[in-house]
Amino acid sequence: MTRYAVKYWHEQLQKNAVTPTDIQQHYAQRTLRYEPRVQGFLDYYETPVMSKPSVWSIPLALKDNIALKDHGLTCGSKMLAHYVSPFDAHVSERLKDAGVMVVGKANMDEFAMGSSTENSAFQQTHNPWDLSCVPGGSSGGSAALVAADLVPWSLGSSTGGSIRLPASFCGVVGMKPTYGRVSRYGLVAYASSLDQIGPMTANVEDNALLLNLIAGADARDSTSDQTQSAEDFTRLLRTSIAGKVIGVPKEMMTEGVSSEVRTVVEKALQLYTELGAQVIEVSLPTLPYALATYYLIATSEASSNLARFDGVRYGHRSDQAQNLMDLYLNSRSEGFGHEVKLRIMLGTFALSSGYYDAYYLKAQKARALLMRDTQKAFEQCDVMMAPTAPVTAFKLGERMQDPLQMYSTDILTVMANLTGIPALSVPCGFVQGLPVGLQIMGKPMAEAEVYQHAFAYESAAQWDLSQPTGLEKE
């Protein structure tokens, strides 16, 4: 299989060497062949959504918690199984303005709550490298579709690692931008102070090109950075990283990281020294508290955000109700899955009278300390690097009965969401045939520098990611 980059298609369109229809048919044939095994699409559009043909008319998939006007918006939940969005998300508007071709909605953990995409109410997505393994979550559909080359680019969302984790498991590039870099308008909220939309692609340059299209201020999102101006995130890609200082948080190389993953990441860091960068050890003393802090804040915000799904205004409405209280209880009981109910209850408890100070308020204080530690670490280095995930992709069903084991998968990614910094996962090797991701974290609004370091590694390592092995088996 020849995998074509977004940049390649873009150049072919500029030269009129191909048409958007040619490109669409190329990926449609692959989708027909491989999608039954991958199951990455929740909805595939036979007629793509595209405002106008352009040099960016290249097939893209949206995670199904991003609004696209006149199309379904399920969030992987029975609660919104029949909901059709009456408006576009900000990123959907941006894509339409650029002439990008949206070909479908990608599967996801219900309301983005999960680390494996096994919590979808509709189907299980399979990892293209090993179809018996999870693709990671919650943007597992978006990652698997890119890994299988059913689309060359996609959008996911991250609350605690939901772009980088599936990118690591599926061997693709995933970027969580700085909080406020990309508007959240039209993204169904999980935890509003953590959520961020980001690009997923097969290589670093394509990722930066997609961020170029979706980043920017938006007055409809009060958390959007209104001071940012248009920026080319590819501008530093081909500049040297010689003399750059890379900080490796010691806590991220020990906290539950498998020895095989650590070995692969250490080899990647060695390559950086060969490229002229200096690798030093830094410390994030409060990192051991990050996972607990994240789950307290995220579930608390979720319990508030998901209160709007009550069976009255939109979404699933139970027909087994005698009164208003029955309507609320039955609609939510029938519409939400187990994991969503669990997180709503955890958040409601943390916010309840008598427990607010002990849990939610303390978590916010711990978040402030983690921000301080991160700032201190960046005084010593240009970027920080660590494994994206402590393990490679695990088997479907392996962790479903143990929530704590499942939650621990996010242990290395939640820090970037809690502190709002940009963080990217780039493939850096394999353990027993499954991809390993290298996580590169930058200072706020320093996405271009993160891409610079990722591109330097990708160019030097030259991994062959053209065909995931699980799809070679007919």
Task: Quickly describe the structure.
The protein contains 14 helices and eleven strands.
What report would you give on this structure?
This protein is of the alpha/beta class and 474 residues long. It has 14 helices and eleven strands. The protein has an eleven-stranded mixed sheet, with helices on both faces. The mean pLDDT is 96.
Write the layout of secondary structure elements.
Elements: H1 6-14, H2 20-38, E1 41-49, E2 59-63, H3 90-98, E3 101-106, H4 140-147, E4 153-158, H5 164-170, E5 173-176, E6 196-201, H6 204-214, E7 245-249, H7 259-274, E8 278-282, H8 290-305, H9 324-335, H10 338-351, H11 357-378, E9 383-387, H12 403-407, H13 414-419, E10 423-431, E11 434-441, H14 447-461
Parallel strand pairs: 2-3, 2-4, 7-8, 7-9
Antiparallel strand pairs: 1-3, 4-6, 5-6, 5-10, 9-11, 10-11
Helix pairs in contact: 8-10, 8-11
Largest sheet: 11 strands, mixed
Q: What share of residues are in beta strands?
A: 5-15%
SS summary, helix count: 14
Give the terminus-to-terminus CA distance.
14 Å
Number of separate strands: 11
Structural class: alpha/beta
Write down the overall geometry. globular
Q: Going across the biggest sheet, name each strand in turn.
A: 1-3-2-4-6-5-10-11-9-7-8
Mean pLDDT: 96
Uncertain spans: none
Helix content: 25-40%
The H-and-E topology, N to C, reads as: HHEEHEHEHEEHEHEHHHHEHHEEH
Radius of gyration: 21 Å
